[in-house]
Design goal:
Layout (H helix, E strand, L loop, with lengths): L2 E5 L2 E3 L5 E8 L8 E6 L5 E7 L7 E2 L7 E6 L4 E6 L8 E8 L8 E4 L3 E5 L2
Parallel strand pairs: 2-11
Antiparallel strand pairs: 1-3, 3-8, 4-5, 4-9, 5-6, 7-8, 9-10, 9-11
């Protein structure tokens, strides 16, 4: 059974930083791309970032480019999202999402339950 468990969410001040983690199990993590997707409460989903299976090909939404950094540790089956210079509009539930294959661009299938990030003074 595929499991994706996010952690690291919480309250941060505008301009601050947070690091999210996603622990993966139930599949061969190093064979698949993974993504971060967020949802503002009451609004639609926004793809945030994706990374290919070999730690390459990272891509970001324009809204987070140059502020967020995605990375993965295949030895630890863990995905990360370093979030810097946080803004109030970054407030959302952040989901870790498994890719359909090695490249993030071909789609996503399995989702974690999410972790809430709140950016507020």
């Amino acid at each position: 059974e595929v499991q994706l468990v996010e952690s690291g969410g919480g309250l941060a001040q505008p301009g601050g930083s947070l690091t999210l983690s996603c622990a993966a199990s139930g599949f061969t993590f190093s064979n698949y791309a993974v993504n971060w997707v967020r949802q503002v409460p009451g609004k639609g989903l926004e793809w945030v970032s994706g990374i290919n299976n070999n730690n390459g090909g990272a891509k970001y939404a324009d809204s987070v480019k140059d502020r967020f950094a995605i990375s993965r540790d295949n030895a630890k089956n863990t995905l990360y999202l370093q979030m810097n210079r946080l803004k109030s509009e970054d407030t959302a539930v952040y989901y870790c999402v498994k890719g359909l294959g090695a490249y993030w661009s071909i789609g996503m299938d399995e989702w974690g339950k999410g972790t809430l990030v709140t950016v507020s003074s």
